[in-house]
Specification:
heterodimer, A: four-stranded antiparallel β-sheet, 12 strands, 53% strand, B: 114 residues, four-stranded antiparallel β-sheet, 11 strands
Chain lengths: 112, 114
């Protein structure tokens, strides 16, 4: 079956620190992979995505690479800002069935 | 223009009542979804629906029912509300075909059952 395992939070970092949030998946077939971000009081919004192995998604300084050999899609950012404080969700899409599977979310707090 | 909208944004009601949450998307998407997010931010899929198929998460009580008057709307009806139904409910939509299509989420409806 399909599932996403995400690093437990909460994560607290100082401004300008390096961020990694781990995400691994199990999937039937060849899924598309996504990172969503949820700011306080808001809905989820797409942060970045990758649709095939070795693709790198990037946006707002965040990056993640689709690693088929390790079934991973870790989120990274070189220098976090206070405004990055949010909950981050890793997700996969079973393209054949158009079903989405989300990780449990990782809360990030960045302190000045 | 708002892509996925939900009403109401907040809903406070008493146990035993019946309530509905409305969702509309103006993206022309084929599939719509309802999610429940608990206080720990865990996101649970409740339903996905397009004009061909309704997929129900088997753990969802049958007090919850989706109703779709047309392709752009998927409303959520909840009967006999219970305290444990308190959560934030998100509607989402996506296009069916293509590898790169992501979900678009509404702003959420915070339901409080007293």
């Amino acid at each position: 079956g399909n599932s996403v395992t995400q690093m437990e939070g909460p994560v607290t970092l100082s401004e300008e620190a390096f961020l990694t949030i781990n995400c691994t998946y199990t999937a039937t077939g060849y899924p598309s992979l996504f990172w969503y971000v949820q700011y306080p009081g808001e809905g989820l919004q797409l942060l970045l995505k990758a649709t095939k192995a070795d693709d790198k998604g990037s946006n707002k300084g965040f990056e993640a690479t689709y690693r088929k050999e390790t079934t991973s899609f870790h989120l990274e950012k070189g220098s976090v800002q206070v405004s990055d404080s949010a909950v981050y969700f890793c997700a996969l899409r079973d393209v054949r069935r158009n079903q989405f599977y989300f990780g449990t979310g990782t809360s990030l707090t960045v302190i000045p | 223009d708002t892509a996925v909208s939900q009403t109401p944004k907040y809903l406070v009601t008493q146990m035993g009542n019946d309530k509905s949450i409305k969702c509309e998307q103006n993206l022309g998407h084929d599939t719509m979804y309802w999610y429940k997010q608990d206080s720990k931010k865990f996101l649970k899929i409740m339903f996905s629906y397009n004009n061909k198929e309704l997929i129900i998460n088997e753990t969802v009580p049958n007090r919850f029912s989706p109703k779709s008057p047309d392709k752009a709307h998927l409303n959520l009806h909840i009967n006999s509300l219970e305290l444990g139904d308190s959560a934030v409910y998100f509607c989402a939509s996506s296009q069916d075909l293509g590898f790169s299509y992501e979900q678009y989420f509404g702003p959420g409806t915070r339901l409080t059952v007293t």
